[in-house]
Every structure is written in C-alpha cells, then in structure tokens.
Amino acid sequence: MPHLSTAERIGREIGREEGRIVGKVEGRRELLLDQVAVKFGPLTDVSIVAINHLTEEKLDQLGKDILTANSLNELGLTG
Question: What is the rounded CA–CA span in Å between residue 10 and residue 48?
Fold first, then answer.
C-alpha cells in the first residue's frame, strides 16, 4: 500500500464522511418516496421531482408529517 501524506488521509476521510451523509439523505428520500406511494398510490413525475429536490431537514419533517396527512396537497407535494 503506498504511503499517504496527512493531507491525503484527511481528504479520504472527508470524502468518506461526505459519502455517508449523501447516502443517509438518499435513504431518507427513497423511504419517503415509498411511504408516499403506499399511502397515496402511484406518484406523478411532479411529486417525484419535488421529493428529489427536498433538503435533508424537509425530508425529515415530511417523514413525520406523512403519518397524519390525508393528501399529497397537505404535504405540499401536489401534482
């Protein structure tokens, strides 16, 4: 294994951490897509695009809100 400088080791660790964060957000996004589809039926392209552009915080909030929502409109995902 080649010797890595401190900067290279730090860069790799930062890359791994960023990958973990992105993976967690993508997992939340996929879960929300599944939850919405199960509760309200097949999603429109508009709803899918809307979910794919949500921030991590909004994904978390909608993950909770879906428990009591009666429509996509209540979640702000109409389309």
Answer: 36
